[in-house]
Design goal:
Layout lengths: L2 H25 L12 H14 L1 E5 L10 E2 L2 E2 L7 H4 L4 H5 L12 H10 L4 E7 L26 H11 L2 E7 L13 H17 L6 E5 L8 H14 L4 E2 L31 E4 L17 H13 L3 E6 L9 H17 L17 E6 L2 E6 L7 E5 L5 E6 L10 E3 L3 E5 L10 E7 L7
Parallel strand pairs: 1-4, 1-9, 4-5, 5-6, 6-7, 8-9
Antiparallel strand pairs: 2-3, 10-11, 11-16, 12-15, 13-16, 14-15
Bound molecules: ligand FHN.
Ligand FHN binds next to loops.
Length: about 450
């Protein structure tokens, strides 16, 4: 090739390289934690099932269910799964629980059907909590379920049942580990290899995994660099894996979503995927004396509030040492499920409300539709929708199979939907407004 042609080809190659690099940054807009080189479209595809799912089951289960909040005849305050720490139980004493944990009544298929009937689309279970005990068959430690009387992997049947029943199976895994002596101080790099090894088992041995839900990241030995390297390591094994922000230090990167806990951010977390996790009573791990159950009304309205702000709801159950999900939890989940059977369209695949605040409830939306979640039914039958300027082409109650049209009056500062004197559901009756175009609220 002549010198001129050669120079031209170099210039062309340089131009192409610069253009490509500009184009690639144009695609990866700084939404939170787009992976290096991952385009927005690729991230949206990876996150789609999770963003549409809205509602998941959290399961805190392990050795701590045996003492269930009491040690040597004394009640131990705090979360059930923290009894080793809060009860100041010597490691060797606590580890003896391995010989007592024998969940003979465990029925993974039943657990998954309870979650599915509640309208939950994914399950996040503690593969290992802070006590370091593995609920799965780990070749890296004897401090696992195989070393006790039960002697069978607890996670495998749950993963199989999720895959069979169409739910995503996800693992909660604690970085903090009270059992492994390397997990603090100068030997931490050895522990980090152990941590990666167990995660490799969890990602490779149980079929497709939806989410790795990290926790215990607050320890001084852990840092963002460990988090970023671990995220890359995991994604190499399963590229579409989703991880929470506790793989780092609960910031916007590394990790795919924020994890507010026991609270609902007042205005959500705009521009960021997020999930509120919450207990149904006062503890994550089972405690025999914790009867502070939230009502079904409270839990359902929390779900709607979270989804109206653009988030997911990860609602916890804490099974007993025998393997039973407390009946109080099951009752609430069945009641939520009955509502979701009728009104799930107003939850799954929706996006955040276009309204700043609604005195009578919340709103969610899909293209061309607004779902008005009415908690407080208007006594005069006039539901005021503040600031909405779109033309409403149809209005009806989502639970009304006939979709009998409701009349709508346009006023200067609101639209009024004329609703029946009584709601169809005392907790949340959904009014659907079909509208032209994107919602316009002044
Ligand atoms: O210490 C844990 C606690 O036991 C529980 O697992 C919660 C649930 O996310 N996370 C930590 C507290 O932030």
């Amino acid at each position: 090739m002549s010198l001129i042609n050669n120079r031209v080809s170099v210039r062309t190659a340089l131009f192409l390289a610069i253009s490509l690099s500009i184009l690639s940054t144009a695609f990866v807009r700084p939404t939170a934690a787009a992976l290096p080189g991952e385009t927005k479209q690729q991230k949206d595809k990876r996150m789609k099932w999770w963003r549409d799912a809205k509602f998941g089951m959290f399961i805190h289960w392990g050795l701590y269910a045996v003492p269930a909040g009491e040690w040597k005849g004394k009640k131990v305050d705090g979360y059930g799964e923290w009894i080793q720490f809060k009860g100041k139980i010597p490691e060797k004493e606590y580890a003896k629980l391995q010989a007592k944990f024998n969940p003979t009544k465990y029925d993974a298929k039943k657990w998954v059907s309870i979650a599915k009937r509640a309208g939950m689309k994914y399950i996040v279970i503690t593969s290992k909590h802070h006590d370091g005990f593995a609920l799965f068959d780990s070749k890296l430690t004897d401090y696992d379920i195989m070393g006790g009387p039960y002697g069978k992997d607890l996670l495998k049947p749950l993963a199989d049942a999720c895959h069979d029943q169409g739910l995503e199976i996800c693992w909660y895994h604690s970085i903090l580990d009270w059992h492994n002596p390397d997990a603090k101080g100068e030997n931490f790099p050895e522990y980090e290899k152990f941590l990666r090894g167990q995660l490799k088992e969890l990602v490779n041995n149980y079929g497709h995994i939806g989410v790795l839900w990290f926790d215990g990241e607050w320890i001084k030995e852990w840092n963002e660099e460990y988090g970023r390297n671990l995220e890359a390591y995991l994604r190499d094994m399963q590229p579409d894996l989703i991880v929470n922000n506790r793989i780092g230090k609960r910031k916007r990167s590394p990790g795919d979503f924020g994890t507010p806990e026991q609270e609902i951010p007042t205005t959500g977390m705009p521009g960021w995927d997020w999930e509120t996790c919450m207990t149904m009573n006062g503890t994550w791990g089972f405690k025999s004396d914790d009867h502070s159950w939230k009502s079904t009304e409270d839990l359902l309205q929390k779900l709607v509030d979270i989804v109206s702000k653009g988030g997911n709801f990860l609602l916890n159950v804490g099974p007993t040492a025998e393997g039973i999900i407390p009946p109080e939890s099951v009752k609430r989940l069945e009641e939520i499920g009955r509502w979701m059977d009728v009104n799930g369209e107003s939850i799954y695949g929706t996006t955040a409300s276009p309204f700043e605040k609604l005195a009578w409830g919340r709103a969610t939306k899909k293209p061309g539709k607004l779902y008005l979640h009415v908690f407080d039914w208007p006594a005069d039958g006039k539901l005021k929708v503040p600031g909405l300027t779109n033309k409403v082409t149809k209005a009806y109650l989502l639970a009304d199979k006939s979709k009998k049209p409701l009349s709508v009056e346009s006023k200067a500062d609101c639209q009024i939907v004329n609703v029946p004197p009584k709601p169809l559901d005392k907790i949340d009756t959904v009014v659907v407004l079909e509208i032209d175009g994107e919602p316009q609220v002044k």
